[in-house]
């Protein structure tokens, strides 16, 4: 790796530090901004003012904001995310139990969306005037306007309820059962993300097609898959990786809707339940987890772009 790209990577790593600090501050402030008094919620509607005040002291909510921030960061450094207001179970245990379904969903959605978007982008870029390319473009226009929950309901109705091939909801116990239960949710989240990936990929490929080095390669007789592999994909991959990172971050929020639609016991569904029941520590922890995941995904994308594109410098 060149010195310029090393500086680029070092700069991106340094930029993560203030972003993480800002995320932690937002997470601590979240408890103050959410409607309702956490002390009252935990103590109960019939608790006296003294009991509510005692709960607030136990939680440290009566301390200044900087003290609350330092306390939260200290506990976090020790791996303590707190306890759920609803159950009293450590949040790390709940996250460990539910992270599997969300991880399966996100990985499956990314793989399926990439597998669908790549051939669509190649078709619209290399054969833009063909009937298949026009049909593909119109289908993407329709698909991009369909909300994920509607796509999920249609898939469940057509592929699950009518045929019985796939489960409508739930998360199985064995590997095979989980694989089958993830087909419809992954396809749902992939169809929601695929139109933007395909259109952006096609636009990047069109820009590369008119580049001088591609024109030269064509004049030398290079065509077909060798031309695509050596000259098109290599130059179109960096912007595609960046867009894929953006879509991966969007999928985290789309997972909330999809998990609710298919009854998956994931982190997105837990976030909805925690917010509805005023489980403030759980909302804080999941906000921190989602935010950190988005930061990590974008950082990884920047590092991959630095490796793929030799022109990347700081």
UniProtKB/TrEMBL annotation:
The chain crosses the membrane at residues 12-30, 104-126, 138-161, 181-198, 236-258, 285-308. It comes from the Bacteria. It comes from Nonomuraea guangzhouensis. It is found in: Cell membrane. Keywords: Cell membrane, Membrane, Transmembrane, Transmembrane helix, Transport. Belongs to the binding-protein-dependent transport system permease family. Residues 99-301 form the ABC transmembrane type-1 domain. InterPro entries: BPD_transp_1_N, MetI-like. PROSITE patterns: ABC_TM1. It is a multi-pass membrane protein. This is ABC transporter permease. It holds the Pfam family BPD_transp_1_N. Its main location: membrane.
